[in-house]
Design a protein that fits this description.
Chain B: This is Xanthine dehydrogenase YagS FAD-binding subunit. The structure holds two protein chains of two kinds. By secondary structure, chain A is α+β, with helices and mostly antiparallel strands. Chain A has six helices and six strands. In chain A, 29% of the residues lie in helices and 14% in strands. Classes of the chains: A alpha+beta, B alpha+beta. Chains A and B meet through strand 5, helix 4 and helix 5 of A and strand 1, helix 1, helix 2, strand 3 and helix 6 of B.
Chain lengths: 198, 328
Amino acid sequence: MASEWSPGSSSRRTFIKQTTGLAGLTLAPMNQAEPSAPGPTLVQGATELSLRINGRVYSLRAEPRTTLLDALREYLHLTGTKKGCDHGQCGACTVHVDGERITSCLTLAIMQQGKQITTIEGLAKGDQLHPMQEAFLKHDGFQCGYCTPGQIMSAVACIREGHATSDDQCREWMSGNICRCGAYPNILAAIREVASSQ
Amino acid sequence: MNDFHYAKASTAKEAADLMNDQPGAVYLAGATTLLDLMKANLAAPPLLIDINTLPFKGIEQTKDGLRIGTMERMSTVGENPLVVQEFPAVSQSLLLAASAQLRNMASIGGNLLQRTRCGYFRDAAFPCNKRQPGSGCPALTGDNHNMAILGTSERCITTSYPGDLAVALLAFDAVLILQNQKGKQRQVPINEFYLLPGDTPHRENVLEAGELIVAVLIPTATHAQHSTYLKVRERTSYAYALASAAVGLDVQNGIIRSARVALGGVGAQPWRSPAAEKVLTGAPANRATFQDAASAALQNAKPRSENAFKIELAQNTLVRALETVANA
């Protein structure tokens, strides 16, 4: 998974991205393009933004009204994060900002400069899946798969918060992630297995 | 969403100056309610002033209670040990609201300012006296199953106030500290903060243009330490209340020394019930007393064709909440 956004990689998806156009997207090493806090500068129209995602700094040119979700999907082509309702009601767009889960559709990219953003693409280490990804596979925690990246990001945070210590607690603290297919029992089994192994 | 301008304020003065220079500008904190409204074409501010770095933060014990900065997130306040210990109903109201993701984003100041979930308000195709004064209230003759039964007017029957935190703060006599554009602060008890729709449903609170809620003060009290928030919904989790109750009791030798009762899900605004508190105070802490209090709390309810169920639901919610506290 990590290879998908590594410079120099020639995976299938990178090729598609390049042929469909990478306008506005540049990859920079961590020590460059530190985001600045310009005080009361009025930002009008498209400007240069800098986002730190999965350990890398990405630059993009976008309007203030660009949500973090749209920045990830439409500008940076990190399409693992899904757009479901776009109103914070379904959880499909869940990502981590400074380690906390949020819905990326209800925040602006411009607000998240300088923060550490983690998306589903940042969970695996190379070809080694995150334990939660393994558990979703093992327990068949999805059908159509559209809610799955959000479910997994939320689940990882849920355990880290200490909110997965019982089935009931886990259900309550995962209620912001809707699964239209109804894979809830298997999602719950996956999360509880990872929680109990830690 | 409209194509707005954005500015990040690093001091309250900067925020105020930006607000002065741009009529119609709005403050941006957690963004959850604001962006939701903007995506639905219910708000189109020309400028968003990001106030997330303003220093209205911290949860501190004071001489007579807690002081909570309004830039704190719902999740932080809900799980704060001081809040859990001194004001369990306040903690529960926060953790039973929204989802874990939204609670990590939403500031408690913004939470107090959330707008109605009335389907007519939220659909820009309909007239609405809240959105456009004088345009009418389609809910009067429309779908009303989740409309308020207390505090409505013929101009606006609106869905009951959707929030939970405000209900708990109202029960326990919280005071809001507001700061205007000149930096001057004033204290407003939360029971004077929200306005009933009356003839001016577009005015929902006493906040003046450019004014910020900077802190919430909650006084320590025995009835607040022995409190709970019970929320009844159409599904188990992640939904607005059909009825909710924030209650606190100080019971000594089986007699209620002091009581606090506020209801959510039934009022056009968060609903304190002095009538229920009067019934409870000095009475034995038993089911009969609690049922009398519940009757008193709902005696002025005005249901419409589809929402009369809320009367009994709210009464039962209140009785169960009182029993929970009395038996704890």
